[in-house]
Amino acid sequence: MMHYDVICIGGGPAGLAAALSAKENGAEKVCIIERDLELGGILQQCIHNGFGLHTFKEDLTGPEYAQRFIEKVKETDIEIKTDTMVLEIGKDRSVYILNPNEGYQKLSANAIVLTMGCRERTRGALAIPGTRPAGVMTAGTAQRLVNIEGYMVGKKVVILGSGDIGLIMARRMTLEGAKVLAVAELMPYSSGLTRNIVQCLDDYQIPLLLQHTVTNIYGKNRVESVDISEVNDKFESIPGTEKNFECDTLLLSVGLLPEIELPFAADIVMDKRTRGPRVNESMETSIPGIFACGNIAHVHDLVDFVTIESQKAGNFAAEFAKGNLQAGNGICSLAGEGISYIVPQEIRANNCKKDLELYFRVNRVFDNVKIVLRIDDRIIKEIKKRHLAPGEMESIKVKAELLLNAESLKLEIVNN
């Protein structure tokens, strides 16, 4: 049985950053396990630019961003296991793997970092009425088929959901010669970044239909058309508002879900709001020595933020492996009025050597409000915001000394 100081499960941007950080902070034997044939994760199919503006101060494509970290990893003695599936993780930090070259193996580690990312919701999760023809797929599947496999997935396209992948694929399909008829969004606001709405829809005159959804799919062998209807405040379709769109492709961009099968089977405590593992200030889960970061902890907007968070997780994983991370209970971060979730969910002040950054999302659109941070009912910080939306992740920093001897921390939105 091979033993490592730190094992990172997932070789995407989170796993690469966490492994490098663990190595740089004193973990001698580090391993990255990736189920795909190569490192890089989802970045390999994201050939558009917009990556690296925070991390490298450059405008890079997804593969370029991934390659920067892959080259850094290969300059070290970090062990890489690609084409390898992790079947199970244990509370004793054992890792059971399977691959074509080594077969079935059991590994062990002083610390494990979960960096498996997230996946898309499928049609089955939505239960859209209608037939089951070809041409209905997630936006991420279409992105891989177009950008990596070289297939054109359709010529007349409707997109359900305004997540960032859907918005980017609206532009990508247009550039490849397809006609994108509309993007339908159930909510009264887009779930994607504002810059993507402008650059991917507005610049190409693609209509965004807010408070609309697909209510029927027609076609036997291939999609022939879909019905799009308005919805009311209870998200119920309004009779008589149906419009039929003739199309051969329906792309779904209706949300991302953390890949939680491994931590769920290991009885790691989950957060109902993020749908990922609950983590503390060190990105450590409810099982000591098992950490989670990136999109498995909560879905991020930018890969640069995934990198920053994963570097922190890798650092703390190395500290745990060396026996330097202090255990104990901390205070819970409470999501107040207007806040959907906060990460980390628990804070142990004795492990906060620097300012702690809290990541959060609001649960609806706000204009001209204040973000208020309270510690023990005292207002510590107020930040005025002209606009807040659920599609944009926010963050706020807390001074480490303010957390010492604190009993509660709460974040909320109040009127300006």
Give the key terms.
FAD/NAD(P)-binding domain; Immunoglobulin-like; alpha/beta; 416 residues; 33% strand; 9 helices; 5-stranded parallel β-sheet
SSE order and pairing:
Elements: E1 2-9, H1 13-24, E2 30-33, H2 62-74, E3 79-81, E4 85-89, E5 94-99, E6 103-114, E7 118-120, H3 123-126, E8 136-138, H4 139-149, E9 156-160, H5 164-175, E10 179-185, H6 194-201, E11 208-210, E12 212-218, E13 225-230, E14 243-246, E15 249-252, E16 256-258, H7 261-265, E17 290-292, H8 303-321, E18 331-335, E19 339-343, E20 346-347, E21 356-362, E22 366-375, E23 378-388, E24 394-398, H9 400-403, E25 409-415
Parallel strand pairs: 1-2, 1-6, 2-3, 6-17, 8-15, 9-10, 9-15, 10-11, 18-25
Antiparallel strand pairs: 4-5, 5-6, 7-16, 12-13, 13-14, 18-20, 19-21, 21-24, 22-23, 22-25
